[in-house]
Design a protein that fits this description.
By secondary structure, the protein is of the alpha/beta class. The protein is built from eleven helices and twelve strands. α1 crosses α7, α1 crosses α8 and α8 crosses α9.
Length: about 300
């Protein structure tokens, strides 16, 4: 008897290498063995993916978790059910005439959203180098790293965080790599809209976990899958997969580490997107619900 296949739609910002486990799960049959077929829907921005999930246009989202965290804290239906990236494989790439972070003062920094993802990581990275928003620079909403690369080449932005392997591609093209992101930050997660159907969410997460484990032991084969999926030169695909396989990038149990989630929550609070934590006589008390308790549900794993 042929097992019926459940077709699901997975919302993503772009064909980004942080989604290599999904591509491996598709190509190696880890999804089909669990009765699933997954089609990606590319939405171009992180907030676009969050909106599509909230509206029911996609079944699952692989995206920055901040939108789902803010939604859950506000009493909405979005939840984070797994973590995919705890240490962002991003580097700050600047146009060739800029040689230091100081050169970005007064410049335009490309980002995929003004409320999620690379905006927060870039803001924290620039602050560590003495640049504060909005006094020292402005953000330019350009979209995914693919669109940001086009903007860098056109010279319409001064710098942007670029995903593997676009950071290497940019450096080889003469652009300035000011350095990689080194801090923990929950950049990519699996998000759903409650009530989510366990009959497909749990098998999907099991397939991702199996794919992530296979990926770590089969870097070259995974790079070939990624190169075919993105039409990127194999040498760049291999370097990207080697970076993705480094310790601490993909959480082994698909649960975002406390430090990575805390960094995302701190970014949301500092930008007024969720209530702040207030000091009380008894110590720390939240002005709103605890963001992790409100937004993270790992019972689907």
């Amino acid at each position: 008897m042929i097992r019926p296949m459940r077709q699901i739609t997975v919302g993503v910002v772009a064909p980004a290498y942080v989604n290599v486990p999904l591509w491996v799960a598709q190509r190696r049959g880890f999804l089909e063995r669990r009765g699933l077929r997954a089609a990606e829907r590319i939405l171009g921005t992180t907030h676009g993916v969050t909106n599509a999930l909230r509206d029911g246009a996609v079944d699952i989202a692989l995206t920055a978790p901040e939108g789902s965290i803010a939604d859950a804290v506000a009493g909405g239906p979005l939840r984070v059910v797994a973590g995919l990236i705890d240490r962002p494989p991003l580097s700050m790439i600047a146009i060739p005439r800029h040689r230091s972070f100081g050169d970005l003062r007064g410049g335009r920094i490309g980002t995929s959203s003004l409320k999620e993802g690379t905006r927060h990581v870039a803001e924290r990275m620039l602050a560590a180098h003495g640049l504060t928003y909005p006094g020292d620079y402005d953000f330019a909403l350009e979209g995914s790293h693919v669109e940001r690369w086009k903007a860098l080449q056109a010279g319409t932005i001064d710098a942007a965080l670029q995903m593997i392997p676009y950071d290497d591609m940019a450096a080889d093209a003469g652009f300035t790599n000011l350095g990689p992101v080194t801090e923990e930050f929950a950049l990519n997660a699996v998000c759903v809209r409650f009530p989510a159907e366990r009959a497909f969410v749990t098998p999907f997460l099991q397939a991702l976990a199996e794919a992530a484990e296979w990926f770590r032991g089969n870097i070259e084969e995974s790079a070939a899958i990624a190169a075919a999926h993105t039409s990127i030169e194999p040498r760049y695909a291999l370097r990207a997969c080697q970076a993705l396989a480094a310790d601490g990038v993909i959480p082994r149990d698909l649960r975002s580490g406390p430090g990575a989630l805390a960094a995302a929550i701190e970014a949301l609070r500092s930008n007024g997107l969720i209530p702040p934590t207030l000091l009380s006589g008894a110590g720390l008390s939240g002005a709103g619900p605890d963001p992790v308790a409100a937004a993270a549900d790992y019972s689907y794993l």
